[in-house]
Design a protein that fits this description.
Layout lengths: L9 E4 L5 E5 L2 E8 L2 H6 L1 H15 L26
C-alpha cells in the first residue's frame, strides 16, 4: 500500500511566468510548471524525491507529514485551475 503524506504547499506565481511550488516544512522541496495544473502535476514526483533524499541521509521526515494509522482521515486543500 502506498504511503500518504500531508505536505503543506505554497504556490507562487513567478514574474517571468509560470509557478513555483515549495513547502514550508521541507526546505528541500521545490517544483515548478508553466501553468498551475502543470506545477501541481509535478508535486508527487518532487515529494517522492525529497522522501528518498531524507531516507538516503538517514533523516526523519517531520512527524506532521505522516499519518499515525491507515484509518486516520486526512483533511486537505487542493488548488484547482479552471480555464
Amino acid at each position: 500500500m502506498a504511503k500518504v503524506y500531508k505536505v503543506p504547499l505554497v504556490l507562487t506565481s513567478q514574474p517571468e511566468g509560470g509557478y513555483t511550488v515549495t513547502s514550508p516544512v521541507l526546505p528541500e522541496f521545490v517544483t515548478e510548471g508553466d501553468t498551475v495544473s502543470e506545477a501541481l502535476a509535478n508535486v508527487q514526483d518532487a515529494v517522492q524525491a525529497v522522501v528518498e533524499l531524507y531516507e538516503d541521509l538517514g533523516r526523519a521526515l517531520p512527524p506532521t507529514l505522516t499519518r499515525q494509522s491507515q484509518d486516520e482521515s486526512i483533511s486537505f486543500e487542493f488548488a484547482v485551475a479552471i480555464p
